[in-house]
Specification:
Length: about 400
Amino acid sequence: MTERLYYHDSYLKEFEAGVVSAERAVGAAAAGERWNVVLDRTAFYPTSGGQPHDLGTLGGARVLEVMDGDDGNIVHVVEGNVTKGWLADWAVHGAIDWARRFDHMQQHTGQHLLSATFIELFQFPTVSFHLGRDACTIDLETNALSTEQLEAAERRANEIVFEDRPVTIRFGSAEELARDGARKEVNREGTLRAIVIEEFDLQPCGGTHVTRTGKIGTILLRGAEKAKKNWRVEFVCGERARAAARRDRELLVQTARQMGCGPAELPAMVARGIEERQANHRSRQRLLEELVSVEALTMLAFRSTQEKTGGTRTLARIFNDADADYMRMLAGKLVAEPGVRVLFASRAGGQIVFAQTPGLGGDLGALLREMVTAAGGKGGGTKDFAQGNVPDGRGLEGFMEKAGDRLRE
């Protein structure tokens, strides 16, 4: 069983260990000569409990992944031939990627503090934790979470950070930890490792943590969203919080500059822009409806190429740049008249619209579906109104001619 050095000292950056086994990785993961190495002791943290594994080197070879193996061993996936450059007695020097490790320590300890804060203030338990590359999340067991609650939790958590309370490690059974007020019950036998934030939180955990709350750095809540029955809160700590705040500020300043105002005036400018866009949209819709009405009257009254069969007028037209919305509106106006059938297509996107006055014979949905499928497109609809598209708008003349032939049949 691998001795886990990080259990007692998360600040251990380098260590010496003996090699228990080293086997060449098999399968697709073996590309580029990879080995699975088990040591008698290690400071490398394996992926577990929502925290990613450490990176670093073993004997100068890059450690690509660290994972829990069988029988309590930790497996290090190492790049390169591990038998070269290592000592004859199979001793090896390990070095942790400290920047990555310390970042994970800040985020994970910040999560403990934040989860304890939501319990203290609102009795919202944490049901899951994820430490991502750019941000972290906790899922809270609650049906509702307000902005005011987020702000209160952020403020209280940072109070504990600024008090610089000790963060210590203790060991005990599940019963002992529960008796002493562990935040979350753990159903495991034997001796458990727990993290203690002085007079604030006790939680069983095997992860790596800072030694004082002040080393977490600022805790910044980035937002929250509903996640199934729970609420997911995104947060960052330490250097991540500083970098996120800087990015947010730069984005705000850049956006304000593009809007021709100062950052403080940006909300009002955005609100005004939304109002103007909505007004323009309403105006555009009114003009579009007027245009559609005029074009429909023109087509019904003067279109010389319309085909009349058995009292039914078939109006066929290929547009150069009309979109599907316009063709649907125009078709709707036309087929509101008795005895009208419409075959529309547009070279812009290969859009197709077939429509007819309700009660006319034939199934335009079936016809359109058959034709666009044969042309490599897709679509469908009812017997009186159908739409779709074909991939090549350049071949619409033949498509429309065939559609007319099928209707005549």
